[in-house]
């Protein structure tokens, strides 16, 4: 790898870690501040966050297309500046409408930045290295989100409006640092180099890729499960200690941070991607079943929850590695922003489906709901496994054909 590319990757990885910390602070501190200190109704905050998430979902692909035209660095700097504006809006907001403006700015800019950072990585490594790059970024997301959530929670526990404003100012300062890092990326502006081909909506017309993204949005339900469904299940339906909810969140983050990149490095072929996805389907179903079974146990609730969370996280790691291999080893290089933006829609759809579909299922059906949810996620993961096996067979056939037509040595 060239020195220039290594510099780009190091800076983007650093920006990703800071960006995820910013997101953790923004999500935790803003909700607590506007509900407890400003006095907005929880239902109103929920509506605002839903609208902001849907707006981000609708705009992320146009942002990716625009980034491919104007240049990934220019787009990243512009979006990072919007994050600063979002926190400035939070700091001065004392009512619903200004809070809604800040939330929409925050969610749209964070969604766009996530896609652009991934696109910069994908644009500066070869096809197989994209999967490892995705794993590194995911590890940084988990670490940064965990740290940011802790910082936002500290502001809430300490109490007082001033500390929340300090937290918003701190996050805005980190966003300014990210802006400076992205502005100094050694990437030529699009107008100075060869213009990138304008391919139109090729990512959305790529049926294979869109199919993978659709299945990924179901597999990625692990995100709202860990962040939303599992804590609510523990606090509302189980006779478990109060500390179990944060412990399960911490266990998930720790396992991902320690093992995601190492495991993903093993997934270097279609066959290994299929094996990783098969393991993911099995452990995701088992994890959901164990978490649901915690409601039926009497003396082993804690052990059952920890085992279920561990299996769910193993499934998240192994399924994610296989999924990234399928999604990113065969995409064209003409539109990295667009492809990463379309894939980024998968996580946004999962965040919407979790509270809207999975949560009512679990609250209504209890342990049975967890099994149904596990079957749905495992089914989507198995479908991706079948696709990986087809890719492996196609690659074997192509390799055999090349050997047949290769002229024999005299």
UniProtKB/TrEMBL annotation:
Top-level taxonomic group: Bacteria
Annotated membrane topology: Multi-pass membrane protein
Plastid is among the record's keywords: no
Cell location: Cell membrane
Stored Pfam families: MFS_1
Protein known as: MFS transporter
Location (main, coarse): membrane
Origin species: Solirubrobacter phytolaccae
GO molecular function: transmembrane transporter activity
Transmembrane segments: 12-34, 40-63, 70-90, 96-116, 136-158, 164-188, 209-234, 246-265, 277-297, 303-329, 341-363, 369-389
This protein's GO CC annotations: plasma membrane
Keywords: Cell membrane, Membrane, Transmembrane, Transmembrane helix, Transport
């Amino acid at each position: 790898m060239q020195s220039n590319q290594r510099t780009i990757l190091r800076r983007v990885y650093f920006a990703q870690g800071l960006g995820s910390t910013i997101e953790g602070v923004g999500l935790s501190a803003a909700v607590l501040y506007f509900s407890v200190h400003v006095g907005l109704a929880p239902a109103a905050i929920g509506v605002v966050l839903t609208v902001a998430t849907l707006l981000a979902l609708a705009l992320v692909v146009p942002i990716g297309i625009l980034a491919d035209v104007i240049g990934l660095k220019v787009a990243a700097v512009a979006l990072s500046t919007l994050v600063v504006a979002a926190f400035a809006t939070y700091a001065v907001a004392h009512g619903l409408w200004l809070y809604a403006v800040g939330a929409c700015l925050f969610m749209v800019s964070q969604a766009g930045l996530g896609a652009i950072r991934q696109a910069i990585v994908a644009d500066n490594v070869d096809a197989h290295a994209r999967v490892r790059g995705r794993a590194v970024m995911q590890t940084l997301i988990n670490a940064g989100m965990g740290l940011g959530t802790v910082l936002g929670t500290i502001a809430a526990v300490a109490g007082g409006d001033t500390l929340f404003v300090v937290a918003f100012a701190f996050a805005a300062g980190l966003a300014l640092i990210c802006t400076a890092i992205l502005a100094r990326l050694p990437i030529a502006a699009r107008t100075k180099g060869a213009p990138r081909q304008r391919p139109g909506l090729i990512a959305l017309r790529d049926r294979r890729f869109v199919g993978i993204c659709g299945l990924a949005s179901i597999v990625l339900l692990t995100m709202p499960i860990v962040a939303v469904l599992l804590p609510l299940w523990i606090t509302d339906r189980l006779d478990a200690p109060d500390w179990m909810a944060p412990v399960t969140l911490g266990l998930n983050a720790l396992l991902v941070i320690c093992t995601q990149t190492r495991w993903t490095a093993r997934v270097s072929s279609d066959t290994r991607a299929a094996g990783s996805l098969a393991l993911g389907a099995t452990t995701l179903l088992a994890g959901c079943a164990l978490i649901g079974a915690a409601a039926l146990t009497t003396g082993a609730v804690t052990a059952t929850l920890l085992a279920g969370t561990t299996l769910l996280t193993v499934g998240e790691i192994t399924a994610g590695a296989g999924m990234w291999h399928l999604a990113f080893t065969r995409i064209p290089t003409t539109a990295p922003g667009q492809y990463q933006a379309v894939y980024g829609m998968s996580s946004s759809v999962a965040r919407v489906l979790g509270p809207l579909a999975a949560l009512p299922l679990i609250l209504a059906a209890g342990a049975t709901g967890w099994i149904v949810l596990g079957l749905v996620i495992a089914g989507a993961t198995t479908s991706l496994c079948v696709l990986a096996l087809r890719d492996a067979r196609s690659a074997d056939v192509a390799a055999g054909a090349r050997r047949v037509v290769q002229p024999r040595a005299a």
